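Dear H.,

Thanks for agreeing to be a second pair of eyes. The structure we're designing against is below in token form, covering all 114 positions.
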């Protein structure tokens, strides 16, 4: 069978692009926000297994301040609220706990916030 040499009519090749109708947006969705990226949930604070001053501070902060705090909250506390000598005190204490093999949950939780 030979290929068709028939040319398509205007009716066959027309495509129409219609503007979105407000009724096409899902009910309960704010039209101004339709099609935008969803916001990311804040990262929950989860200390790593590394035994250092920052994690020592984080573990105590979570236990004594608020267990539901977010990563950004702790970062502000540690980087902006604590003074350099306070961060160094956590580093020194963490090093001592590791050297004496005293890094235990009870010691961590009952320790003081510097």
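And this is the sequence the design step returned. I haven't edited it by hand at all.
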């Amino acid at each position: 069978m030979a290929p068709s040499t028939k040319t398509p009519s205007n009716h066959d090749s027309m495509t129409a692009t219609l503007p979105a109708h407000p009724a096409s947006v899902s009910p309960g969705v704010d039209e101004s926000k339709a099609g935008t990226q969803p916001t990311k949930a804040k990262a929950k604070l989860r200390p790593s297994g590394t035994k250092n001053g920052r994690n020592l501070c984080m573990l105590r902060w979570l236990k004594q301040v608020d267990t539901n705090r977010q990563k950004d909250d702790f970062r502000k506390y540690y980087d902006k609220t604590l003074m350099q000598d306070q961060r160094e005190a956590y580093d020194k204490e963490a090093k001592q706990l590791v050297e004496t093999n005293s890094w235990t949950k009870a010691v961590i939780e009952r320790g003081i916030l510097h």
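Two observations from my side: Residues 62 and 69 are 7 Å apart (CA to CA). The chain has five helices and no strands.

Warmly,
E.
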